[in-house]
Amino acid sequence: MSKYIFLGCLNLLLNFNVAFAQSQEYSDYKPVYRKWQDNYILDKIEYTKSSTIFYFRFVSDSLHIATFYEPGHEMAWYLKGKNGKDFRLKAVKNIRRNGVMMESNLTSEKEFKTIKGYDYTTFSCEVHFDRLPNTEKIVDLIEGEGFENDKTHFNCFDVALKTWDNKELGKVEDSKEKIEKFEDKFGIPKSDKSKVEPKKDPIVVKVDNPKKDVIKKDPTNPYPIPRLRSKSDIRCNQKMVLDNIQFQDNTTDFKGMVLCQQTMGYVYEFLRDNPKATATIIGHSDVFGLKERNMELSKQRAYKVQRWLSMMGISPFRIDVEYYGSQQPIVKEGSPLNRRVEMFIKCN
């Protein structure tokens, strides 16, 4: 009988210890994880009785746009557990631009939040999940299910989930020092950042049914279709070549990032301001090399543009993709002009 009493007491003790550990509130000021790029970090991870909160920070430079996705959105953050269980986003809170509050609570009741930046701009937010069980030791923080391997997304891999008694939790000063070094690297002002905040974001007038404009032929245009080089070049129901979105030879790497990002911004703003409009991205390659390789290359180039627009806030369901490899060259003998992306915007 004493054996069973001992086992019962031991079981109660174990359950008490598990419950005690799960109820502890603490913060990890020295998060351990891997990431794709240098322009984002985790400031800290906070464990409350009901939530596990990831404090996320990133710097936007010439893109000038930051998009935050609400729970339930196909691009929302989620946690991929190593034990085969995934954890869904609960909320995104306290979204700040250069320390100034822009949105206090982005939940499933609201649409995604798009915020403009300028020069080098720091954005920060709190990514909330239900309190994770102590059995989860490592998770991946992924921006958008299906985008685990997309290097344009803000993904953090192998994030260590520490317990309250871990000796490597660090102190508040550790987090502050890391943030300061991170922002110094991009030249972010150390103090009084609100002074550089614009007073207001520009007022946007939405037009659901833009009229088709007449395009004048440009004798200097090397392409047989109009070029999209500025926001005023965008036309409905007419194919355009994204002239400034160029690629390195035999890769999906952009050539001339500033011009690429400017063009992407023009397309994003048009689709955002005209929510009934849809777009088709059309990829092409040069004539050299294997046809199968060229077809795959044109496909990946088109999908890369689609992913960028999706990351900026345009639903991927509004963006179709077509690709033709080397089947439709501008210069049959071969030319960088053949490595192009075209777009057809349909306005209802």
If you had to describe this structure to a student in words, what would you say it looks like?
The protein has four helices and 19 strands. It is of the alpha+beta class and 348 residues long. It has two domains: 24-196, no CATH class; 231-346, OmpA-like domain (60s Ribosomal Protein L30, Chain: A, 2-Layer Sandwich). It has a six-stranded antiparallel beta sheet with strand order 1-3-4-11-8-9. Strands 2-13-12-6-7 form a five-stranded antiparallel beta sheet, with no helix packed on it. It has a four-stranded mixed beta sheet with strand order 14-19-17-18. Strand 8 (91-97) and strand 9 form a beta hairpin. The chain is elongated, with a radius of gyration of 24 Å. Residues 192-217 have low confidence and may be disordered.
Topology as a string of helices (H) and strands (E): HEEEEEEEEEEEEEHEEEHEHEE
Rg over C-alpha atoms, rounded to the nearest angstrom:
24 Å
Number of β-strand runs = 19
What does the average pLDDT come to? 81
Which regions have little confidence, pLDDT < 50, spanning 5+ residues?
A: 192-217
* Structure annotation, total helices: 4
N-end to C-end Cα span: 80 Å
> Strand fraction band?
25-35%
Give a short synopsis of this structure.
With 348 residues, the chain is an alpha+beta fold. The protein is 22% helix and 28% strand.
Any descriptors?
alpha+beta, 60s Ribosomal Protein L30, Chain: A, six-stranded antiparallel beta sheet, 22% helix, elongated
Topology:
Layout: H1 2-23, E1 26-28, E2 34-35, E3 40-47, E4 51-60, E5 65-68, E6 77-81, E7 86-88, E8 91-97, E9 100-106, E10 113-116, E11 121-130, E12 138-143, E13 156-160, H2 172-185, E14 239-241, E15 246-247, E16 254-255, H3 257-273, E17 278-283, H4 291-312, E18 319-323, E19 341-346
Parallel strand pairs: 17-18
Antiparallel strand pairs: 1-3, 2-13, 3-4, 4-11, 5-10, 6-7, 6-12, 8-9, 8-11, 12-13, 14-19, 15-16, 17-19
